[in-house]
Specification:
eight-stranded parallel barrel; alpha/beta; TIM Barrel; Immunoglobulin-like; seven-stranded antiparallel beta sheet
Length: 508
């Protein structure tokens, strides 16, 4: 055994999105009934989500938390709809239509036994819209009190809004992607600016922990500033977070220094390129995650946003692969294996974005007209597959006679690799079973793998297979089959279909 594996690695992000017509989590609630769409609830329940982040995203640093509740004294009687604000590019943005408020989010989490993670606005303090101490109280501590206080004015307001019992939210994140705040984005790191940012974070942390000492706070990893914050305030901060997305928009395909015509690139090459997300270790050929925070900040860490975030645009559209959403699911599987490889440091991970209407990143796609039933996308299916089938320990693994391929393409954030493992394997275990997680990057060949265990396993075992070789009701793009098998022993040969993600469960 190498290290524990935290269940919270398979969390989700219930984002209230704001760009290109995507409304995100608001789509979970029916315009017709005002209730959570049954298929959305069903898929969320199936995904076995341990921790769910809400409401933002970039938008949260531009509006206060109380815009997500009704009857806010001195502000509004009903929470705002179609809220406008200025984003970090000073563009006017509409924050969807407000269907999913704080109470709706918490009720859904309670129903599905999910731990809520709430992100709060740090931007108003950083941009000096209001004084730091005022922001820390109104946007931080008051939020904690509204959620968790058992008596007092905030508990009374929460009860008036329909929830007499405290929400008991344990996880709060201070700000979102604060490394993109204006001056940081422009790489301005003056001593004055760094001191101001640290003062903002610490004011929030102290005020929020004073409101409820039992909460766990997450802060962004913003270079050396975090080291100074944590040096003497580790008791305030439970996790430092970073975000990871790959490959982003693909507008051209490069081979070496040359751009190649998209329609001249084989479907196999594009598939196997996407399957090599987010990055490949040069020696082992396996997927890895790299970030400054991983190397410089003391654990425990969090990845409160990650995903295989891909879209083809411009001339590169001609290279969009067959069943592109399954290809993205294979890439997400590669991402999950990389996350498991850093599970000695990372304890929380939230895949973006759980519910949506337009972005390819979506796990559960909702038709805005509600004429079609909601469907699962393979990126969400693979995270649910892992959440439902994993052990609580990462196992040491030795590989022999591995197969590799050369990946020559630059696909935006995915880089060429001289040596990519055709089968990317991670093994986890618990007291009852071994779980062999296999991402098969092979485009057109089923592969037999010999698995040797340190002890004899029972003869019956189960293969959970995500592929498009059969279609089910869950998705138009892929299916998860449950295949019961026999004949397992201390050395077992398993068959892994091409273009697939598998979890084999061997009972001890």
């Amino acid at each position: 055994m190498l290290n524990p594996v935290d269940d919270r690695l398979f969390g989700g992000f219930f984002e209230k999105a704001t760009w290109n017509g995507e409304i995100g989590s608001d789509a979970a609630i029916s315009m017709n009934t005002g209730k959570v769409i049954p298929e959305v609830r069903e898929y969320m329940d199936w995904m076995n989500i341990p921790i769910l982040r809400f409401p933002g995203g970039t938008a949260i640093d531009y509006y206060p938390w109380y815009n997500l509740i009704d009857s806010m004294p001195g502000k509004h009687s009903q929470r705002p709809r179609n809220l406008h604000y200025k984003d970090l590019n000073r563009k006017d943005v509409v924050n969807s239509d407000g269907r999913t408020g704080l109470h709706e989010f918490v009720a859904l989490c309670k129903e599905l036994d999910i731990a809520p993670l709430f992100v709060t606005n740090l931007g108003d303090a950083f941009y000096k819209k209001i004084p730091i101490e005022q922001a820390a109280q109104e946007l931080g501590a008051d939020l904690v009190n509204y959620c968790n206080a058992s008596d007092g004015k905030w508990a009374e307001l929460r009860a008036a809004n329909g929830s007499a019992e405290p929400f008991n939210i344990r996880y709060f994140q201070i700000g979102n992607e604060t490394w993109l705040f204006d001056q940081f984005r422009k790489n301005e790191r003056s001593t004055e600016l760094k001191d101001h940012y640290a003062a903002c974070v610490l004011a929030y942390a102290k005020a929020m922990k004073a409101a409820d000492p039992s909460i766990q706070l997450i802060i962004d990893g913003v270079g050396e500033i975090n080291e100074e914050i944590l040096k003497s305030n580790r008791d305030l901060v439970s996790y430092t977070t970073f975000h990871s997305y790959s490959p982003w928009g693909i507008s051209q395909i490069k081979m070496g220094d040359s751009t190649v015509l998209a329609d001249s690139v084989s479907a196999k090459a594009v598939w196997q390129g996407l399957a090599a997300a987010p990055k490949i270790d040069e020696e082992s050929g396996l997927s890895i995650i790299e970030d400054w925070v991983l190397d410089h900040v003391e654990p425990p860490l969090a990845m409160t946003e990650w995903n295989l975030n891909c879209w083809f645009q411009g001339e590169a559209k001609a290279a969009r692969p067959y069943n592109e959403f399954l290809a993205y699911g294979i890439g997400a599987g590669s991402y999950l294996n990389a996350i498991l490889r850093v599970s000695d440091k990372v304890r929380i991970a939230n895949q973006s974005m759980l519910v949506g209407t337009g972005w390819g990143i979506t796990s559960i796609r909702v038709d805005t007209t509600e004429q079609k039933t909601a469907t699962m996308y393979p990126t969400g299916m693979v995270t649910g597959l892992y959440s439902r089938n994993h052990g609580n320990q990462l196992m040491k693994m030795e590989v022999a006679n591995a197969r590799f391929y050369q990946q020559p393409l630059t696909l935006s954030g995915i880089s060429p690799s001289a040596k990519v493992a055709e089968q990317d394997v991670v093994v986890t275990a618990d007291e009852a079973a071994y779980y062999v997680h296999v991402v098969n990057r092979s485009f057109d060949e089923d592969v037999a793998l010999a698995v040797v265990f340190p002890e004899r396993v029972r003869g019956d075992y189960t293969h959970f297979l995500l592929s498009d070789r059969s279609k089910g009701a869950m998705s138009a793009y892929a299916n998860i089959e449950t295949i019961q098998l026999t004949g397992a022993s201390d050395k077992t040969t398993i068959l892994v279909p091409s273009k697939s993600v598998s979890v084999f469960v061997f009972n001890k």
